[in-house]
Amino acid sequence: MAGFRWRLRMAAAQREVWTGAQLRRLLADKAGLELSAASVSALLTRQPAQLKLDTLAALCTALDCTPNDLLELDSSSSPAVLAPSPSPARTAATGSRSRGGGRTPPPF
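and the corresponding structure tokens:
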């Protein structure tokens, strides 16, 4: 979520939303999302480690923008795809000692 804080501030400023209190009111009025003052402040001042889809949708509704206006894909690092580890019973039955049971995870 590189640049989220900056992009959120830009989207808010384009709609003349300058304070956390204004954004909090807008989220409640337009999107029906009640966030605490501390939560809104954190969105505006810190880079979030995670963001709920409901919150993202509410921000987009309140600011009349799209997720593309708030998020930027960092293509320099690709996420690791994790395969489920085999159950002990399955490993014993098949004699397989490889991780993931020799199956490849789906490509999504």
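(Above: one complete record from the training split.) The radius of gyration is 21 Å.
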